[in-house]
Amino acid sequence: MERKLQGQVAVVTGGTRGIGEAIMRRLAHEGAFVYATYHTSSERAKQLWEELNRDTYRVAFLHADVTDEKDVERCFATIQEEARRLDILVNNAGTTADRLVVRMSIEEWDRVLNTNLRGAFLWARTAVRLMLPQRYGRIINIGSVVGIMGNVGQANYAASKAGLIGLTRALAKELASRNILVNCVAPGYVETAMTEQLTEQQQKAIREAIPLGRVATPEEIAAVVSFLASPEASYITGQTIIVDGGLSL
Q1: What is the pLDDT of residues 137-158, one digit of tens each?
Q2: Backbone angles phi, psi at 240, to 5 degrees
Q3: Per the count of CB atoms within 10 A, which of 23, 106, 114, 118 is most buried?
Q4: From CA 110, how far away is CA 234, in angstroms rounded?
């Protein structure tokens, strides 16, 4: 496979599990030097570092709370000192706190909005400072079809992911003149630790609702991210690419 991201530097937030891990692996496989952030999974980060660097991929892990402005600034100071540039930012870190709105607490609302939307804003704002002098960059936000369709018990999550779509469009317009492209990938159901905890009946109901009859693999989401980060997507900006097997039709 052609290493189409050879020599580029990428950041993937929440890059040690699920979709984030798959994205981190794919970008590294394409030749990028990848910084992946983690918040609580330090042992997993250590395992991944040992595995991937043994396989000659170039990866590094940064401990960060994506909602903390000082943490974000510290991470980018490290990247600027070590790599001297940044080509790709993938805002993947996210969380859920599902509950019907009449029972949802302010803390649950704030926690999801802060992680999923405030976090993406903080990382994008800081990344742009490195990308502007280069006149080159790719920002890819990981949204969700829930931000388009809505979902019972996920008012906070849906609002945060819908906000990401708006953020994507606004940034795309602001940054296009500097050749910084901003897009959003909106997955449907994906095979992760979260979906594995569902009962067989729940999993069956999900599969029946998807025209393709199955959930996505994390690698299928990573493939779309890799495309958007590549030179092949040089005329795509401000778009939300839905990857849901037809769920939102």
Answers
A1: 999 999 999 999 999 999 999 9
A2: -115, 115
A3: 23
A4: 35
Residues contacting 59, CB < 8 A, separation 6+: 24, 28, 33, 34, 35, 36, 48, 49, 52, 53
Residues found in the chain: 249
**CA atoms of 85 and 95, how far apart (whole Å):** 29
Note the pLDDT of residue 55.
73
* Residue 1: DSSP 8-state: -
At 96, the amino acid letter reads T
CB 133 within 8 A of CB 111: no
Q: Cα dihedral sign for 106, 111, 112, 117? A: positive
CB 151 within 8 A of CB 101: no
Per the CB < 8 A criterion, the answer to whether 245 and 46 are in contact is: no
Structure tokens, 24: 């981190």
Q: How would you label 180-199 residue by residue, b for 16+ Cβ within 10 Å and e otherwise?
A: bbbbbbbbbbbbbeeeeeee
Above 80 in pLDDT, residue 75? yes
Overall pTM > 0.70: yes
The CA distance from 64 to 160, in Å, is 20
Q: Which residues are catalytic?
A: 157
